[in-house]
Amino acid sequence: MALLIPNVPWNEHDPSSALVAIYLETSLTSVRSAQLVRKSLDARQRRPRWVAVFRVEVEDEDIILARGIAGVRTWTARDEGRYGLDADGPVRRALPSDLRPIVIGAGPAGLFSALYLAEAGAKVTLIDRGSAVEGRTQAVNRHWRGRAPLDPENNLVFGEGGAGTFSDGKIYTRRRDGELGYIFTRLVEFGAPREVIQDAWAHLGTDRIRALLVPFRQRLADLGVEIRYDTRVVDLRVEAQRCVGVVLEDGSELAGSPVLVATGHSARDSAEMLVRAGARASARGIAVGARVEHPQELVDRARYRGAERGALPPASYRLAHNPEGRPAVRTFCMCPGGMVVPANNDVERVVVNGMSFAARRAFWANSAVIVEVPPEAYGADDPLAGFRWQDAIEARAFEMAGRDGAAPAQRVVDFLAKRVSEDLPRASYPLGVRPGDLHDLFPDLVADGIREGLRAFDDKLAGFAGPDAVLIAPETRTTSPVRFLRDEAGCSTSVMDLFPIGEGAGYAGGIVSSALDGLRAARAIVGLASSR
Ligand SMILES: Cc1cc2nc3c(=O)[nH]c(=O)nc-3n(C[C@H](O)[C@H](O)[C@H](O)COP(=O)(O)OP(=O)(O)OC[C@H]3O[C@@H](n4cnc5c(N)ncnc54)[C@H](O)[C@@H]3O)c2cc1C
After folding, report:
1. Cα of 502 to ligand 1 centre, how many Å?
2. How far away, in angstroms, is 162 Cα from ligand 1 center?
3. pLDDT tens readout for residues 142-157
4. 193, 240, 391, 481: most buried, per Cβ within 10 A?
5. H helices of 14-92, where?
């Protein structure tokens, strides 16, 4: 038996067993083992402090439990998953030889589903429209540094690793279930530092994500996965309501099933392809807005209440405002020490997002300030109407900022006063920013919500809406505006052997939740196939 001990004050100098013994007011010798399973910085105190969760084996367990210390309880099997410890090794199964899964998309959902299927012994083909990460990185650099035109197939959203490759690499999720252990153990095997399992707010940074994709790919290849980069799937082959293969851009066909569609929420053509194939879908609410950028030092000062940052990490925040009778507004995907980046795949569009390197050492901090938009706002009951709504905003942004890839921007004080900024502070956006009135970009619902949110957030974080803050827009692609209907196993309710998975399917939002979604479908496929 073991105990779960939350809220233990933590520092890196004292041994875990000593910290736990002091917290439990017991002798050091009675602590048989103390395993740090999660640590997080509590910045709500006057002095920020680290607190940790431990899995502990102690001699006088019953006595300690009887003391009723808040949160202390018996460690359960579910906690193994919750804290990313249940590391399933590969489970090879006797699978039918006609099981030849095709996975479309090498983002987190596609990569993890392909890995699980291949570990189970399936002969998998993994296809991505973009290049392997090395070539993709070169394409992004050419665009940012050399001002080469955007490559529609190799950019921040398409190519090996998917949309998370050039990201902050936050790998925490609100979902807490058993399969997290599978994901985190594999990430560590592929080169992520072990601490990502323990850190409550773990992040990798784009540099470490790009590095771990190479051993990930090698593992897939070693397991016999056929990987096809620079290959776009343009149609799904459906016979008698069963998906039996895919059609590639060059017109050739590839037979195989089941087909897992992990194409993300930027590949609008892929969503259309699913609808064409007969996959039932419904429109879904999204949240859109703008990135707000501040000097990181401003955020540190506000969050650490003027205390020296010293060895503490660059401060972060998560803010929300839920006004009665009006749409909720919140900050999203905060990137401490990061930069605002272009996240579009079409040349004549502007979409922004946030990215950072592992060290999070950039001068700026950014986050999206986003407003909930219900599907009724799209003005249509077509399941793909949300894409057109997003697209119109992205096209207006391209026009507004001069049609060369720069993003429209406005000082927060000017946005609140509804005037175009005369000048803009130095911003991180690699393709440049130009002044524009963001009220002309967004419907009133969104612009009003952003204004209300900025004012509310300024009360919570000093300087949030101050003269140093700038909005860079638009952030339209926070999540998928469509959801493909699925059964328990993750299969489309209208086409057999077709599994829409990950963020584009409308069931996940983020790197880990998309990976979990892919993994769950792969497990279901292996389970069903091995019981045939
Ligand atoms: C700049 C940025 C920063 C982000 N930061 C974070 C973060 O810090 N933490 C976090 O959790 N999430 C973050 N996200 C979101 C996260 O990246 C996504 O939620 C996640 O990648 C979705 O995974 P997915 O596998 O479902 O799809 P995606 O990652 O979008 O992958 C889809 C893949 O499918 C391929 N594809 C699409 N259509 C086709 C086709 N027809 N044929 C062949 N291939 C196709 C694409 O090339 C792509 O590689 C960020 C996103 C961006 C853009």
Report:
1. 9
2. 4
3. 999 988 999 999 999 9
4. 481
5. 16-24, 61-66, 77-82
